[in-house]
Design a protein that fits this description.
Strand content: under 5%
Order of helices and strands: HHHHHHHHHHHHHH
Distance between the termini: 23 Å
Structural class: mainly alpha
Number of strands: 0
Radius of gyration: 22 Å
Helix content: over 70%
Number of helices: 14
Shape: globular
């Protein structure tokens, strides 16, 4: 890949400078969105009231939530490994480390860069970037579809649910169905894509393009295995059950006693909102969506905001613990290989 002109442009500073400017603009825009959303979520909520709610949160509730979140993170890695088996068995420890580091990046950086990290850091165990990227795509599509299914059940049981949430769920249902149709039909058009590549892609890049397409199609092949998909969806249900139990208990800890339906609506709304990477870590967006969903359904605004802040703080803290440890673990494995 050393002969790609982009590398030469980078050496002259023609490519790197626009990239830095674009990143800076995106970061500033994301911070502006975070600030605006935080203001919308926190307006009319006294800081002292938030402090009082935070001080009343029992430590054992925090520890219980962290245990549930850590278990959920382990199961997410096991779920991803089911898709990776299509290429070759990968050690669970490696999958957990790469997934944890990627999830940490997703919750700290804009544009879901953690998914790109996941797709490009399984090379040392023989998994190509194109294949891994396809499995990440399949995972996101199926996860979104499951969340849309949950939100449809929850919305169907409430007559006073926010109208915007229903519209957003329908839009995301269409997106999830479109992604699933693409994933199922793409293998049938692989030959056509390769032929188009032969016409449009420069000859020096053609071999790389064909290899990436082949590996991406192989990654989509995970959908063809019924038993594997059943195991995937079973793990998905368990993961969201753990997340729901943790959020429900944390809600009780801050005095926002959520029903099971409200817990489902909270989790699905903030998870679906995070599918659109508007700001770094969705800071502010997370709180605004949680307040917009819970307050019309009878939850005190201050307690809804406190719950959203506590949830995001503990999620990021848990991911920092496992993610930084995973980065250290992965770095330690690679150092001997370079000697």
């Amino acid at each position: 890949m050393a002969d790609i002109p982009k590398v030469e442009l980078a050496a002259k500073g023609w490519f790197r400078r626009p990239a830095r400017v674009a990143l800076a603009i995106r970061l500033c825009g994301g911070l502006a969105i975070s600030t605006a959303c935080l203001w919308l979520a926190a307006r009319s909520v006294p800081v002292r009231e938030l402090q009082k709610i935070a001080q009343s949160l029992p430590l054992w509730v925090v520890l219980l939530y962290l245990c549930a979140a850590s278990s959920s993170l382990f199961l997410r890695a096991a779920r991803w490994r089911l898709l990776l088996i299509e290429a070759k068995p990968v050690p669970q420890g490696i999958v957990f480390a790469v997934n944890s580091a990627g999830q940490m990046a997703n919750n700290l950086l804009p544009a879901r860069l953690g998914d790109l990290f996941r797709a490009t850091n399984l090379g040392p165990v023989g998994i190509s970037g194109g294949f891994a990227l396809a499995t990440v795509f399949v995972e996101r599509v199926l996860d979104t579809g499951f969340l849309v299914f949950l939100s449809a059940i929850a919305l169907g049981s409430l007559s006073d649910a926010p109208e915007w949430l229903g519209r957003a769920s329908r839009v995301l249902a269409g997106v999830a169905c479109g992604g699933l149709v693409f994933a199922l039909l793409m293998p049938f058009f692989g030959t056509a894509v390769l032929r188009v590549g032969e016409i449009c892609v420069p000859r020096r890049w053609l071999a790389t393009f064909q290899r990436l397409v082949d590996q991406f199609l192989l990654g989509l092949g995970s959908l063809r295995h019924g038993r594997r998909m059943f195991q995937f969806m079973l793990l998905t249900a368990t993961i969201w059950a753990l997340d729901g139990a943790g959020a429900w208990e944390l809600g009780r800890g801050v005095g926002a006693d959520l029903s099971p339906v409200l817990t489902v609506l909270l989790l699905t709304s903030v998870a679906l909102a995070s599918a659109v990477p508007l700001s770094p870590g969705n800071l502010g967006v997370y709180q605004m969506v949680a307040v917009a969903v819970l307050t019309p359904l009878g939850v005190n605004r201050a307690r809804a905001l406190a719950l959203a802040i506590a949830l995001q703080f503990l999620i990021i803290g848990n991911l920092l613990f496992w993610g930084l440890g995973s980065v250290w673990f992965l770095g330690g494995r690679r150092r001997p290989e370079r000697r």
